[in-house]
Amino acid sequence: MGCEAPLDADEEHICKYCLDHLPTTKHWEQTNNPIEQIFWGKLQVVSAASYLYFSKGGIVQEMLHNLKYNHQLGVGRLLGKRFGAELAKTPFSDIDLIVPVPLHKDKLRKRGYNQCDPIVEGLSEAIGKEYCLPALKRTASNESQTRKGRYERWLNVKSLFKAVEVERIAGKHVLLVDDVVTTGATLEACASALLEVPDVRLSIASIACPALV
Fold first, then answer.
1. Which domains does the chain have, with CATH numbers?
2. Helix, strand, coil % over all residues of the chain, rounded to 5
3. What digits encode the pLDDT tens for the residues 184-198?
4. How far is CA 100 from the centre of its chain?
């Protein structure tokens, strides 16, 4: 999916050279990094980070497009494992439970899967922490966020999520995971639902963010 060269027998989805040259953010090594700053004054977040920068037409966008629309779930697991290997060396390793941003049931039925689920599975394997895929429920389908501004995105998603696995979430340090963070509106709405559960501590992770975030 990167240089389009043939893969060796021990390579999956993307060659070793391209993997080694992915545009990593190193957010997990930075105090008050740009992703944490998105949620300042909005949420009580322990830690937040994105793994990669994406740009239009770039390799990261290509990988996430294949994950989201072309059933390439292995890409999500691969990126999740690589990101998890980095987070396991940091305070992110203090988490207890990994939770994905959910899809509405209609979109899930149409697509057949939630693109965040394999990312969560890869993170879980690398960090050695359990995950709960049905921890959150999207209560209604929202309009596309693509052409909306920050405030419009927030209005579009602010009441769309509910914590449904309360007994598994209560008292835990939860890592909330999305594929991409831009304005943070969807993650903020999900996080707010999780933080309504007693004694929850929250961290946030995404595979990618825009290069200018």
1. 16-210 (3.40.50.2020)
2. 40, 20, 40
3. 989 999 999 999 999
4. 7
